[in-house]
Write a structure and sequence with these properties.
By secondary structure, the protein is α+β, with helices and mostly antiparallel strands. The protein contains three helices and eleven strands; from the N terminus they run H-E-E-E-H-E-E-E-E-E-H-E-E-E. Helices cover 38% and strands 26% of the residues. The strands form three sheets. It has a four-stranded mixed beta sheet, with helices on both faces. The chain has a four-stranded antiparallel beta sheet with strand order 6-5-9-10, covered by helices on one side. A hairpin with a 2-residue loop joins strand 5 and strand 6.
């Protein structure tokens, strides 16, 4: 940790904020200015990356909904037109459903990720990160989303529909509100094998 902040003859190629000389440590105004510039550059890059990521995700989500409808799959789109929303079941258990689709026999839970192109998009590290994200979703689907949906589909139908109650929470403000969507009563007691993730 020491060498992250303090430069010495042992690590002359580093760029810490402080410089050790003899028994004293100096703070260089030039280094501080450059460090501040680098921090600002990093923050701007992160902001732009997040902006692109969110917009690519929204555009991709719209295309997926359109393709599903063309194939005759009805869709429930819980978070459309609402930025940064999670479906919240319990106080300490949140998960997100991007798109929920269904046909006559099956239900599809679809996760939309924003793989926007960038200079290092195809490098091994980037590919590994995308695989890890998909693995996390698969785990979340198996352990949380699927059991939650199966449990909710055991509710008694009203007027031919099963109404599923949940909660929407905006990540940035933490403000939330009750939310509901409906599925046809034919999915009551559906076999777990007919609930798929994509």
């Amino acid at each position: 940790m020491y060498y992250i902040f303090v430069s010495s003859q042992k690590n002359p190629m580093s760029f810490p904020l402080f410089v050790e000389f003899g028994n004293e440590i100096y703070i260089s105004p030039t280094r501080l200015r450059i460090a501040l510039r680098l921090i600002k550059q990093k923050l701007i890059h992160a902001h732009e990356s997040n902006f692109l990521s969110k917009n690519f995700e929204i555009e991709f989500q719209k295309k997926v909904v359109s393709i599903l409808k063309d194939k005759g799959i009805e869709t429930e789109d819980p978070i459309s037109n609402i930025e940064l929303i999670n479906l919240k079941d319990k106080k300490n258990d949140t998960f997100e459903i991007d798109i929920l689709g269904y046909d006559e026999e099956n239900i599809y839970i679809i996760e939309c990720k924003s793989f926007h192109p960038h200079p290092f998009y195809m490098l091994k590290e980037g590919r590994g990160r995308r695989k890890l994200n998909l693995k996390r979703f698969s785990s979340k689907f198996t352990e949380n989303i699927k059991p939650w949906l199966i449990n909710r589909l055991n509710i008694k139908p009203i007027n031919g529909s099963i109404t599923i109650q949940c909660y929407q929470q905006e990540i940035r403000t933490k403000k939330g509100r009750p939310f509901q969507f409906s599925l046809p009563e034919r999915f009551m007691n559906i076999s777990p094998k007919k609930i798929h993730s994509h």
